[in-house]
Specification:
The complex is a heterodimer of chains A (146) and B (893).
Chain A (H helix, E strand, L loop, with lengths): L2 H10 L8 H9 L2 E5 L4 E3 L7 E16 L2 E8 L4 E2 L1 H6 L6 E14 H10 L1 H25 L1
Antiparallel strand pairs in A: 1-6, 2-6, 3-4, 3-5, 3-6
Chain B lengths: L4 H42 L11 E3 L2 E4 L8 E5 L2 E3 L1 H50 L3 H6 L2 H11 L1 H10 L1 H20 L1 H48 L1 H6 L3 H54 L4 H12 L2 H26 L28 E9 L5 E10 L4 E6 L4 H9 L6 E7 L2 E2 L5 H7 E4 L10 H5 L15 H9 L14 H4 L4 H14 L3 H10 L8 H20 L6 E3 L11 H6 L1 E3 L8 H4 L1 H9 L3 H19 L7 H6 L7 H14 L6 H12 L3 H4 L6 H19 L7 E3 L11 H6 L1 E3 L6 H15 L3 H9 L12 H14 L4 E5 L7 H14 L4 E6 L12 E6 L2 E7 L8
Parallel strand pairs in B: 7-16, 7-17, 10-15, 15-16
Antiparallel strand pairs in B: 1-4, 2-3, 5-6, 5-8, 8-9, 11-14, 12-13, 17-18
Helix pairs in contact in B: 1-2, 1-6, 1-10, 2-5, 4-7, 5-11, 6-7, 6-10, 6-11, 7-9, 7-11, 9-10, 17-32, 18-31, 22-28, 23-25, 23-26
Chain lengths: 146, 893
């Protein structure tokens, strides 16, 4: 797998869909491709957010640490972006993520990510759009529940 | 210091000057004879003057003394001489001439060497005297002096003075006597010619010095301007961060550029004057022969001057201008260095110095005394350099140990009191006494050992962490090693220091230890106290292990690296590190490291130089991969250009990730374009090397450009073997330290030695996991102290800049603690740490300083733990208010 494959993966991420391929290449090049073994943690709930991840291959569980132990609330798969909220909002990690089987992921360092957003408005707008869409969706879901 | 340079020189070099003077005198007759001989050669030998009476032979080398009449007259013969013919006389006299030339040369050589030695010795003395004076600057003086200007003065400005000192007395003497000899000689031959020569000399001596005075004035300005330039440059270098913080680069450039213009203008004016004077001088010197030929020739034709005399006069005149010119030069130099000397000495005047008695050494055999109580402050009144009052009416008397916290809001008072106690402020009113000693009169061997000060601006110097810590123990030693041999002789001659530096300067007793190893253990203790122990271990892991100094560690590392490997395998973590294997390509290492399979020690094998290294390119070529690797560099360059094109130069991502510097982008654009159209043939040798350099930095799993295939990898391993074979038999043997699983790699950090391989770039969190593993192992093998000792070797950079601000303060406090002082003054140091950390540190320090005094300036009363401090004084503006006082001593008297 090379940089080109990673760029292909990044293009599948909704947040990065509309971004120039050259920018995505920069994003990929400045990230690290790392592997996790089964059960290895990406990060732990309450940690400081230092990086976001894009799963290139494999799957990961989203676990909430509760008084009664860990509770699995969701699962991430290929081309999913993980942990970007803690990086953007500077809040602690809201959940623990562990690898299911061997996972290959692209680790996007927080500082690098912020630098890129600051440098390229196009990327910042894409990120904003994605977050606004999510908010919209949540609102719609809340409205439909009521 | 003596205000007049000549008196200074005379006082310290009288004897040497007189010896040189005597030799100069002794050389004069020989000089005169060498002038006289040409005349005799022409007149007696060539023209046959000695044979005029018809005799076929004459006496040669007949030596004797005509006795004066009061001794009875007559002639006492010493040597009868030889009977020689005309040819014999010619060769005899010529040989004699050659002999005198040699003798004159020998004299000149000896005199020059003696003058050189004299000058260099005086320069050494002058510099040492000035430096000794610098050490006596009062704290207040020191604040007003720019350090770089003082350094320039001691280093550069006194240099010409030293060069001149050798010439100070002997030069005018030698030249003057030569000139006078030559003049006398000319006068004796012909008065008229003598008068002409004398007249022109007189003109030279009146006009030229006048013109040169202007030159000197300019020179003095140049000296001051150059010194200021040096001051400015070092100021900018020291505060480079501030320059960038404030976007002031343009201003600084303009400022320096302006100064450079002024300097240029001045220097250029000096040049113009200099050559003007030179022109005039040459003109005057060359006009004289015109008179000699015209007037001398006239006399010769008239018969009042014989040809031999004329030749001799012209020959003598040839020798006249050089000494005259040099004499004028000497006079100018004299004025010049006198001005320089005065300039320098002015900066080192006695009213700004500490009293000499405080620097007096501890008498031999006397135990270093301790601080005596009670400590008494009587109506202490401190003002700053502008006369602004900082503290008023502070009085108290306490028995030792004194445990006092000083606090204030928005007031400089507590710090001022702390600095008075540390003798960093010497200009105060009132009295500070310990027992019956006044603080300002206490000798430094007492205060330096018993009082320790740490303030908010750490004073650290470039050197190792250890050297910075043990500076608190570097006192004048009773048994400091003495100089020997030539060094000692010279030191005695110039009144320099007689002690040798090196081992033996550390006051181990004061630190309470017996040897260097125990001292290191004590240093780690103290660093633990200030919260730097973990950092120390980290520094040790990054440090190089010198097997001579740490033989045990060097030996154990090899053992430890095997255990690390074994453990990782047991835990299924062997993919964290890809070990070095001579037969395999290491994917996690750069192409360069794979080629070398070791750490470059010689600069020719480091970094980009490797791409131009003949040996390296030869082995790559032998494997037929040089072109492939160079093309690979072109691919890298093309990708970098594509990826980083839109980032502005200097962007942090650029610096961190790109293979190519921002200002090289355009170059590489051009190179890549030509490579695409014409292949490697379109590139110059240099350009290919630049491309190869990119490839050498490449790591596939890190950069992921998909450029390395198995064929290339295998070829690189073969090239590695070729390189090792080639290096083994070449003079460059040892330029690369090869990896050897059974030996410590001295040039690689300890951390890498333990891993003996490269950390995987593609395993998540490899670094923290490996660090945890190795740290655990270090403790298991009881190597922690050894690693920490390596950490103590860490070079902290100028002013400790390679340490964080917090660590700088911590080291500063540790330096104070290591000498177990009677009184520790902590002036606002805790502001550098968090509240909790500060509290822990303070109580740990208090425990260690049990029974000793602590004076602390704190930024809040909450830190003034009653367990630590008996007394708390709060300053309201300049007025002290005693907030708490546990054991108030009975009022003094």
């Amino acid at each position: 797998m090379t940089l080109e494959n990673e760029v292909q993966s990044l293009r599948q991420v909704p947040m990065f869909r509309d971004i120039d391929p050259a920018r995505l290449k920069l994003l990929a090049f400045t990230s690290e491709r790392v592997t996790f073994t089964d059960g290895q943690r990406f990060f732990t709930q309450g940690d400081v957010g230092d990086a976001a991840y894009v799963i290139l291959d494999g799957a990961a569980d989203v676990l909430l640490e509760t008084a009664h132990g860990q509770l699995k609330v969701a699962e991430f798969g290929r081309n999913d972006l993980i942990g970007e909220m803690a990086v953007l909002a500077e809040t602690p990690r809201s959940a623990t993520i562990t690898a299911v089987g061997d996972v290959v992921a692209l680790r996007i360092d927080k500082r690098v990510f912020i630098e890129l957003l600051a440098q390229f408005p196009q990327m910042a707008i894409a990120v904003m759009r994605e977050i606004a869409t999510r908010l919209e969706r949540t609102n719609a879901r809340l409205a439909s529940r009521n | 210091m003596e205000r007049n340079l000549f008196r200074y020189v005379w006082r310290h070099s009288r004897r040497d000057q007189l010896v040189i003077f005597a030799v100069v005198l002794a050389s004069l007759p020989f000089y005169y004879w060498s002038l006289d001989l040409p005349k005799r050669i022409v007149n007696e030998a060539i023209q046959g003057g000695a044979f005029r009476s018809g005799l076929p032979t004459t006496d040669f080398l007949k030596l004797g003394v005509e006795l004066p009449s009061y001794l009875g007259g007559g002639y006492v013969s010493i040597h009868d001489g030889y009977k020689v013919g005309q040819i014999g006389l010619l060769f005899g006299l010529s040989s004699l001439f050659l002999f005198f030339v040699l003798v004159n040369g020998a004299f000149k050589y000896w005199i020059n060497v003696a003058k050189g030695a004299l000058g260099e010795r005086m320069l050494r003395r002058l510099r040492f005297d000035l430096f000794s004076i610098v050490l006596r600057f009062t704290p207040e003086t020191q604040k007003t002096v720019k350090s770089s200007e003082t350094a320039t003065m001691i280093k550069d400005e006194v240099e010409p003075i030293g060069g001149f000192i050798g010439d100070a007395f002997s030069q005018p003497l030698l030249l003057g006597s030569q000139a006078i000899t030559a003049m006398t000689f000319i006068m004796l031959q012909n008065v008229w010619l003598g008068l002409i020569a004398g007249g022109i000399v007189a003109i030279q001596f009146t006009v030229i010095p006048r013109m040169r005075r202007v030159q000197l004035r300019l020179g003095k300005q140049r000296q001051i301007l150059s010194r200021r330039l040096a001051g400015k440059v070092s100021e900018v270098v020291d505060d480079l961060e501030a320059v960038h913080d404030n976007d002031a680069t343009a201003y600084e450039r303009a400022d320096v550029s302006e100064r450079l213009y002024t300097l240029f203008d001045l220097r250029f004016r000096i040049y113009k004057w200099k050559f003007m004077v030179k022109f005039l001088n040459n003109l005057l010197a060359q006009i004289t022969p015109f008179f000699f030929y015209a007037v001398g020739g006239y006399f010769a034709l008239k018969g009042t001057l014989d040809i031999g005399q004329l030749v001799a006069v012209i020959a003598a005149y040839r020798d006249l201008p050089p000494p005259l010119k040099e004499l004028i030069d000497w006079d100018q130099q004299r004025l010049d260095v006198q001005i320089k000397y005065e300039q320098v000495v002015q900066q080192f005047s006695p009213d700004r110095l500490l009293p000499g008695e405080t620097l007096a050494p501890l008498p031999p055999g006397v135990e270093p005394p301790h601080l005596q109580g009670p400590v008494a402050l009587a109506d202490l009144h401190i003002t700053d350099s502008h006369g602004l009052v900082l503290v008023e009416h502070l009085s108290f008397t306490r028995a030792l140990p004194l445990r006092i916290a000083l606090v204030a809001q928005d007031s400089a008072a507590p710090g001022a009191v702390a600095r008075v106690l540390a003798r960093r402020i010497t200009e105060y009113r009132g009295a500070v006494t310990f027992g019956d000693l006044e603080l300002s009169r206490m000798p430094e061997h007492l205060t330096g050992r018993r009082i320790a000060y740490a303030g908010p601006e750490p004073v650290l110097f470039a050197g190792s962490l250890r050297e910075n810590l043990v500076y608190g123990l570097r006192h004048r030693q009773q048994d400091a090693p003495e100089l020997t041999g030539a060094r000692r002789m010279e030191a005695l001659r110039t009144e320099g220091a007689l002690e040798a530096t090196g081992e033996g300067w550390l006051d181990l007793e004061l630190a309470g230890v017996d040897d260097a190893t125990a001292l290191d253990a004590r240093l780690t203790d103290v660093l633990e106290l200030v919260g730097m122990r973990e950092t120390l271990l980290k520094l040790g892991m990054w440090g190089l292990v010198d097997p001579e100094r740490y033989p045990r560690l060097a030996e154990k590392v090899v053992e430890a690296r095997k255990v690390v490997r074994q453990r990782l395998e047991e835990q299924g973590l062997s993919n964290l590190i890809e070990p070095f294997d001579f037969e395999l390509y290491n994917n996690q290492a750069t192409v360069a490291e794979n080629l070398l399979f070791g750490v470059p020690v010689h600069a020719d094998f480091m970094g980009e130089a490797l791409a131009e290294n003949r040996l390296a390119t030869r082995v790559l070529d032998a494997e037929d991969i040089l072109d492939a690797l160079t093309s690979m560099g072109a691919s890298i360059a093309a990708t970098m250009n594509e990826i980083f094109r839109d980032l502005p130069p200097g962007h942090p991502l650029f610096e961190q990730f790109s293979f190519i510097d921002a200002d090289e982008i355009a170059d590489f654009d051009d190179i890549v374009a030509r490579w695409k159209s014409r292949g490697l043939k379109g590139l110059t040798h240099d350009e290919r090397a630049r491309l190869l350099a990119l490839t050498l930095d490449y790591i596939e799993p890190k950069h992921r450009l998909g450029l390395l295939n198995d064929d290339l990898r295998q070829a690189l391993v073969r090239a590695r073997k070729r390189l090792h074979d080639a290096l083994a038999g070449s003079p460059l043997r040892g330029a690369v330290e090869f990896y050897d699983p059974d030996r410590l790699t001295v040039a690689a950090p300890l951390r890498n030695n333990l891993a003996f391989g490269r950390l995987s770039h593609s395993v998540a969190d490899a670094l923290p996991r490996i660090t945890a593993q190795t740290t655990e192992l270090i403790d298991e093998l009881a190597l922690r102290l050894d690693v920490e000792r390596v950490g103590l070797d860490y070079q902290i950079g100028p002013a400790g800049r390679l340490l964080s601000a917090e660590h700088r303060v911590a080291v500063y406090i540790a330096r104070g603690l290591i000498k177990n002082p009677d009184m520790l003054i902590l002036d606002g140091v805790f502001a550098a740490f968090g509240e909790n950390h500060a509290r822990e540190m303070l109580s740990a320090i208090s425990e260690r300083m049990a029974g000793k005094s602590i004076v602390a300036v704190l930024h809040g009363e909450t830190l003034a733990d009653p367990e630590v401090f008996d007394m708390l004084v709060r300053f309201e503006g300049v007025h002290p208010v005693v907030v708490r006082d546990h054991h108030a001593a009975p009022a003094a008297g």
